[in-house]
Specification:
With 194 residues, this protein is mainly α. It has helices spanning 2-10, 15-26, 36-45, 60-77, 83-95, 112-125, 131-143, 155-159, 170-182; strands spanning 49-52, 55-58, 161-163, 166-168.
Length: 194
């Protein structure tokens, strides 16, 4: 909570201002809990909202502030030393085949300590996703190969892979595109064979 408060102070916004901004962004009504008129004027003063006739609209700066708060909250809430992380990393890793990748010395399952570092990066970069999202999509991803793992990424590189100066995440790509993929008539298909 302290990190969130410091972030709000740094951006000249009160907790009530955050509530007002969030309710305008999500178009939900909690205005009877705070003095919304004062907060709206302050949000407008700092460029988080813009008044258009009698209505307020959230600005890009306002959206970025909300995203920043979510990121700070996610990094604060996802302690990296708890049993939940250890259990989820183990569940995740055990979804991958226990064998080597083809004729290489690399295994499909990575060292849990390396996975922990990759997941810290992942949840910091993509705070909108949860462990249940990760486990659900990973299960679908592996099943899409129908036991032909020729092109299956290992458990570490599925989360995060850096090639030169480019870092990518197949996991994040699939999560982002999940809705459109799930709407295909043939069901989930990312890599592998049908």
């Amino acid at each position: 909570m302290e990190k969130v408060i410091k972030y709000l102070i740094k951006n000249n916004i009160t907790p009530n201002g955050l509530l007002a901004l969030y309710t305008y962004y999500k178009k939900v009504g909690y205005s009877n809990y705070i003095n919304v008129i004062v907060e709206l004027k302050r949000l407008e003063q700092y460029g988080y909202l813009i008044k258009n006739n009698d209505n307020y609209e959230i600005t890009d700066k306002g959206i970025k502030l909300l995203q920043g708060v979510e990121k700070v909250m996610a990094s604060s809430n996802k302690s990296i030393t708890n049993k939940e992380w250890d259990d989820n990393i183990q569940k995740y890793n055990e979804m991958f085949p226990k064998e080597r990748m083809g004729n290489s010395t690399v295994y499909y399952r990575a060292n849990p300590k390396e996975l922990r570092e990759s997941f810290i990066w992942f949840f910091d970069k993509y705070p909108e996703y949860s462990w249940s999202d990760v486990l659900r999509i990973t299960k679908k991803y592996i099943a899409s190969f129908n036991d032909d793992y020729t092109y299956l990424r290992n458990s570490k590189y599925f989360i995060k892979k850096t090639a030169g100066s480019v870092t990518s995440s197949t996991l994040a790509d699939i999560l982002y595109n999940e809705d459109s993929i799930n709407n295909q008539e043939n069901g989930f298909q990312y890599y592998g064979t049908e």
